[in-house]
Amino acid sequence: MGSDSDKETRKKKEGAYEQLKPYLERAMALQASLILFEWDNETLAPEEAGKYTAKVQGTLSGIYQEIITGKAVKELLEECKKEQRLTEAEQAIVREASEELCKLEKIPPKEYRAYQELVAESARIWSRAKREEDFDAFAPTLKKIIFYQKKFAKYQAKDGQRLYDVMLNDYEKGFSIKKLDEFFGILKRELVPFLKKVMESPVKISDDILEGDYPKEKQRELAEFLAEYVGFDFKRGVMAESAHPFTTNLHNHDVRLTTHYKKRMDSSLFSVIHEAGHGIYEQNVDDELTQTLVGQGASMGMHESQSRFFENIIGRNEAFWVPVYKKLQELFPNELGAVRREDFVRAVNKVQPGLIRTEADELTYSLHVLVRYELEKMLIEEDLDVEKLPELWADKYEEYLGVRPKNPSEGVLQDIHWAQGSFGYFPSYALGSAFAAQMVRFMQKTMDFEALLRKGDVEIVRQILKRHIHRFGKLRDSRKLLQDMTGEDFNPQYYVEYLKEKYGKLYEVKI
Ligand code: ZN
After folding, report:
1. 275 has catalytic annotation
2. Helix, strand, coil share of the chain (percent; to 5)
3. Nearest-angstrom CA–CA distance, 80 and 175
4. Which listed residue (100, 275, 282, 410) is catalytic?
5. Closest by Cα among 284, 293, 90, 298 to 175
6. What residues contact 483, with CB distance under 8 A and at least 6 apart?
7. pTM
8. Which residues have beta carbons under 5 A from ligand 1 (an ion)?
9. What's the pLDDT tens digit per position in 315-338?
């Protein structure tokens, strides 16, 4: 009794998935600690800590890789794929783990390390080049990053798959070049001429009231009030300050937001509602899924859809401010005491084509993304010469937005993404806005969305998003979630309609 063959039978009975679980739990624990380090680096860690802490992070991510690519996990994953009785969640976890393994396994470790070092260095080079308005100082590094990105994409590409498609797939499954050409084609055709009309409209909106004496302490009070008002749960979340606002989470009971406080009060105000949208998504992922490989939001685009739903569709809606505006007047009596709510709402919806993506208004935002999409595609698919980027960037800004950067820092050097090797990330920003528009159109069919906001009932809206999107985590991809919620595949027309309707009314432009 108790022979090896008995053990074998017991193991088989236990099932491959049960055996896989402890490995994945270890991997997830490492991931959670890496997230905590990242959070700490951005918020509280002392300035000099970076280089030393990076060593700890490097070791931890090394162990993570070892676990995922180890022989045991590999064999168990193969077994799991044959198993018939896995639940939807288990199948999705096996799928995610297999993809992760595939990705880590195909890149030779030596090349991966060299690339990691390059990227660690490149953020510094980029940041200096940006400060000194010197694109040439960054160009050689960018060339190397693109070289590696293409090389790695080649390792992953399935027969004949285009390299940019491989990269896009990392951020948004189901959105290939073909699909995105269609999407951005519509935005270009519809929104570029519409924006021109808005700018020529005799209606002029002033946003001067947003800049003034807005003490940081009061701004913080407002930020906490608003995050809670839209549904962020402070018993399972915290808010801190960082240079660039972001959201991260250890699991659905520990979600962390950051914000920044600027002279213009709407900057913190809307970035808080935006990050709260990301945070609410993570807090509402099912308990059963959290702390697994499918325990976070479905994709970059779906995440942006939630943050933008809260920021724009809720937060920049006139109805939202009906119950909330008096709180603003109480906090800032000198600045807003005598300002009418209508004028405040008009001010936060002012359209002003500018050079900087992160400061863009709701209407022009996706045109900033369009520029980046077109250039990324050219860099990866058409071998566009990196040296030509600043000029092409400026030309496209002039064509789509009517503004031209005077130097590369307010042009091609403004975003960190390419310096981090994130090619294929940008489209998800525009997709998110479009997903959100499709969702609100669906809601408006069955309820009076604005009336709920006027009554201060964001809760019902949040529950709908939870039921259709949040609780599923990464179980299903964004197109499937959208299809299940709205009864329709992704349809960019809703986004165009939403923008034209809202800004056509505000600027009295015929559509
Ligand atoms: Zn976001």
Report:
1. yes
2. 70, 5, 25
3. 28
4. 275
5. 298
6. 489
7. 0.94
8. 307
9. 999 999 999 999 999 999 999 999
